## 1
Amino acid sequence: MKSPDLPIRSLEARYYTDPQIFEAEKSGTLASTWQFAGHASQLENPGDYFTFEIAGEHLFCIRTRDDEIKGFYNVCQHRAHQLVQGQGNCRLLVCPYHAWTYELNGRLRGGPNIQVVDGFNKSEICLSSVRIENFCGFLFANLDSDAEPMDDWFPGARDELQAFVPDIDSLKPIEWVEIPERCNWKVSIENYSECYHCQLNHPTFSQGVVKPDTYDIQPQGHCLRHTTECQNLDAMTYPIDLSANEHAGEYSSWFLWPMFSFQVYPGNVLNTYHWRAIDHEHVVVWRGWYSVDNSDRETVLALARQDRETTVAEDIQLVESVQRGLKSRGYVPGPLVLDPSCGVKSEHSIRALQQWMREGVTNQVKSHKSSRQ
């Protein structure tokens, strides 16, 4: 007689508590996936730049004189001093250490006394580039020069976002808030990627924003697509105009593995999550809120404040408790609740996430072993 299939269990605790696994992720998953860098509105003029980090690497984006957005490692090719800090505008990139100077496109322009060096060919020297993609005005970087483009990683997401937020390419950030959480980045992302806990833990969200019974999450390439209907209008915590857009009465989210999510609240209000892993038990979540020409600024900021005071504050308590529990010798990973019909009380999205998590660590371990042979 065929034995019944065993339940699929959650990841072992070490995936969230072992610093060596985090180091493997930095050189594996985080170095070979599309990571949020910043917003195109930060680079409106030639010479505008901003810095960011991915997998421990210091990087920057800059708009060139040819009106292209380029990404570079933030390191001078002379003796490795960092070139720029924060954000700003420059006519040329000048290294603070020895004044080696680069064009905005990364090509070496010159340096003090370099003409005395026999055989020196400045045309051969250029800053090391990083792949950048503009995804609906949001700039993403990938340290892997051979990675597939974002539309292959996240099929359909770009067109769907433009349908839900028709003016997405004209949006500008009106608020970015950093929210530190004392947990592994994967704990925070798993919590975001299921609504099994919502009705019990998020009364404002589940009673005043969405209808939990209609909530579903489906994998879409390396994207997790959240969909649900808005709450009845008389119960909504903020006003919405259902006639504004065909999707105005819906909530939808596109989580782009591994660390970014576009989230559209009813009324076509776009906000974003960006996770930045600090170490194996600390993560900072950047919450972004956006508007066109500040036209709905007050509504958006009021919704952002409500979100921080309710859902975000509630989630911090949850994820930090989970991180403490993962370090307990009494924890044994339990079965995931996988409902064949999916829906709000199913964890099929967690199964997909944890498979990607396993693959990222396993592939890096295999790569490390083969490089040593």
## 2
Amino acid sequence: MAKLYLVGTGPGSSDYLTKAAIKVAESIDVLVGSQRALDLFPGFSGETLVLRARNMDEMMKKSISLVDEGKDVAILSTGDPGFSGVLKPILRLRDDLDLEVVPGISSLQLAAARLQIPWDEVNLLTLHGKGNSEVILGFLDNEKPTMVLPDFRVEQLAQFLLENGVNPERRVAVCEKLSYPDERVFKGSLEEVADMEFSYLCVMVIYSK
């Protein structure tokens, strides 16, 4: 029976690929993922399907249909499949698949490491696909740092927080392009971040005080 693998590829650099992820990629028929995820497996000789934001649902369904045809398929998920990854949309589509999840190193873990924050003592939140939701406001005053994956632009999230009454001097950190050669970690105030520009590959930490 064919199997669907959901494979975490880490924050971006091949340095953070696990041996388990590499082993799966060496054994399957079809590899599905964003171009930057596919680039982590240059030696793969099977069929590849490029996953984009606008064809996500189509590629999920295509992957399942290929498994039904008897092919072993791996869907690559940046970071870990279980946090803002491909596990949730796959389970919504089908719950009877022969499924294996191969965990990866999340950008949240790497951000916590860079900032030396014990990440079992933070609020974890993803806004991917949700916009700048007011849900984040409920986490900011419980005396824990809030670590968030912004929907797209971290400076827009900072502006949203300012507009909703968060102190402009609130301490924040932005970890950008983690694991890549041009990685950047900025520490400053919420107001400063709102006036800066970052790429979409960011983790933001809002400190408790």
